Amino acid sequence: MSTYSLQRSQLERALPHHLWLDAGLTICSTGAGWAAQRADLLGRPLSEAFHVVKPQGLSTLADWRALAPQQVCVLQRCGAPAVSLQGHVEDLGDDGVLLVLCPTGSSERQAQIETMLELNDAGVAYFDADERLRHHNQMLNGLMSFMPGEALGLSLEQFEERLLKLLAPSETQRNPITELLVAESAGQDDATMVLRRERPFYALIEVSIRRSDDGGHVVFVRDTTRETETERMKSEFLSSAAHELRTPMASILGYTELLLHRDLPEERRVEALTTVHRQSQLLMRIVNELLDLTRIESRQGRDMDRKPTALSRLLEQIAQSQLEAGVSHPLSLPVDCPDTLLLIDEIKAVQAVSEVLDNARLYSEPGQPVALSIVAADEQWLTLEIRDRGIGMTPEEVSRVCERFWRADASRHEPGTGLGMSLVKEIIDLQGGWMEIDSEPGQGTGVRISLPVVTVASISGAPMDHNSAIATTKVPPLDAPHPR
After folding, report:
1. pTM over 0.85
2. I need a surface site. Which of 239, 373, 427, 460 has the fewest CB within 10 A?
3. Domain termination site, one of 271, 299, 327
4. What is the 3-state secondary structure of the chain?
5. What is the pLDDT of residues 231-240, one digit of tens each?
């Protein structure tokens, strides 16, 4: 064994994390501590394998030799494992330089920081003082459509170019990263920018930049689509609710003032009181439906008392509710009723079907029939259809029929809240059911409601006890495929 080889083997054991750089700053030897990664390190330029945290701006052998032996050197391993090392530089003359290093003990802290970043709901990218991307979390890959490892080493300018490729055409005239850097240098610590991303799919993303203590920058990219949409819907809901409540309240206030301050003939007085009563009922219905929607959404179906219920019983309850409402339109019900158990909350199901029947009558000419029929049944689902011969709807109107406060009768000639079909959808969805609507202007509307069932050979006597064996073993799962 040569003297040189002996010295190198001893060096590897004595300084397990050293790095020997040749004249071109390529790693030509490592300590024993790098044994598992030696194949990946040997022959690579130092700048590719390690991020030089301190000092920066070293590009030649002469720069490194000038450090020896006084100044501290701090390196961080690129990629995994992310190890931080600290030491000093030994000048080896024309043979290069020796970096005498040891782990700083911050790898555990680094791992903790990385774990926190991975749990962050925003994409985070750290750029060093040379504006090179040195670290990022996985969330950034998804938001910026990066392949694993693709982003490391990109400059801020290249990062901005990638961002622009994802944005909507109307956004590409801007330079978001550049603008945010200008704002940050001007002292705007909270400078952010919301951009519309089109690729690979539409999203609203919020981008912000903060300067780090070491002269680098941290870029935050966050998907705000759901948050923005929720705020928009909340604003529209409050505006619509206020408008719908104000209309009957204004009518009630006006007529009560008229009754208080004027002596009206008996006929006019009865007319005014009738209007007040009707508007009060409308106001109460709006409030009740708002409370129902709020309660159902907040409880997420926990208030649903789903029990096996005979289809015949459900139809009887629906017919009874229509009689109590004083229905003037002819209503036809199924003549033959199969022996089927529906897995439903009976009260809520009656409420949902009755609401659809109310709508069918509301938008039909007086005397036009409304039909409730059974159009499909199998071992998992039973589908009821409510069909009318009313004014019908366009495809666009059908797509909006379950929006809150939206009404097909834009002129508001017919009384209503615009909440009924929203409530129907919530009730049916939370019972594991499905609703479909087809309509044609001037031809009427059909609403099909599919409900989960429990199949038995026959039903005799009272409805089955929901604690019985068949009720607990034949319940169809909520994620069973819906009929289409």
Report:
1. no
2. 460
3. 299
4. CCHHHHHHHHHHHHCCCCEEECCCCEEEEECHHHHHHHHHHCCCEHHHHEEEEECCCCCCHHHHHCCCCCCEEEEEECCCCCCEEEEEEEECHHHCEEEEEEECCCHHHHHHHHHHHHHCCCEEEEECCCCEEEEECHHHHHHHCCCCCCCCCCEHHHHHHHHHHHECHHHCCCCHHHHHHHHHHCCCCCCEEEEEECCCCCEEEEEEEEECCCCCEEEEEEECHHHHHHHHHHHHHHHHHHHHHHHHHHHHHHHHHHHHHCCCCHHHHHHHHHHHHHHHHHHHHHHHHHHHHHHHHHHCCCCCCCEEEEHHHHHHHHHHHHHHCCCCCCEECCCCCCCEEEEECHHHHHHHHHHHHHHHHHCCCCCCCEEEEEEEECCCEEEEEEEECCCCCCHHHHHHCCCCCCCCCCCCCCCCCCCHHHHHHHHHHHCCCEEEEEEECCCEEEEEEEEEEEECCCCCCCCCCCCCHHHHHCCCCCCCCCCC
5. 776 776 677 6
